[in-house]
Amino acid sequence: MTVLLIDENGVNLGQKEKSHALSIAESKGFKLVEVSPQAKPFPVCRLISGKQLYLDKNKRKERSKIEIMEKEYRIKHNISQHDLRYRINQIDKYLDRNYRIKLVILYKFNYEKAAALIHSMHEALLESNPTRKIHMSKPEAKGENVIYCYFKLLQD
Q1: Best CA proximity match to 77, nearest among 111, 124, 101
Q2: Cβ atoms < 10 Å from Cβ of 105
Q3: GO terms for molecular function, please (predicted)?
């Protein structure tokens, strides 16, 4: 089987038989890693040190560990003003801690009122601290009686 071989510095060594590429890797003290097995006309292999292979594996593992902290609030469209203010204060605290907020509005017949509620909450959050910027996703209808959208704090 023929492969396209790239050395540790990124220099193209050309087309080599896989067995010959393995012997080159062993003689230089590197490992042969298939970078692009589906590439045409030949799979691409690269010489990588064991240390570099270990560091790349750890980087991929760390990237997969990054978890988005999310808080969900479910609110009916006919919520009282006091309860709405309380929810806005709670959302405000979680936004300060860099949470992403999923706001779910449950409504019966009045879609317009539910959509207006989302926009009024966004405005109230902006008014509570005018120096910060809050991104609001486009409200989406999910099912018959549910609208949801996301709020998150934009970093400067």
Answers
A1: 111
A2: 25
A3: ribosome binding; translation initiation factor activity
Taking residues 39-63, what's their average pLDDT? 86
12, burial (CB in 10 Å: exposed 0-12, middle 13-18, buried 19+): exposed
Report the run of H or E that residue 100 belongs to, with start and end.
strand 100-106
Residues, the chain, total? 156
- pLDDT, mean of residues 26-34: 89
| 3-state SS class at 106 | strand
Q: How confident is the model at residue 145 (pLDDT cuts 50, 70, 90)?
A: confident
Backbone torsion region of residue 132, taken as left when φ is above 0, otherwise alpha when ψ lies between -120 and 50, otherwise beta: beta
The whole-number average pLDDT for the span 58-62 is: 83
Task: List Cα–Cα distances, 46 to 8, 14, 50, 69, in angstroms.
Answer: 7, 11, 12, 37
156 pLDDT higher than 80: no
What domains can you pick out in the chain, each with its CATH number? 2-65 (3.10.20.80), 70-154 (3.30.110.10)
* Residue 154 backbone phi and psi in degrees, to 5: -85, 135
Q: Look at residue 67 and tell me whether its pLDDT is greater than 70.
A: no
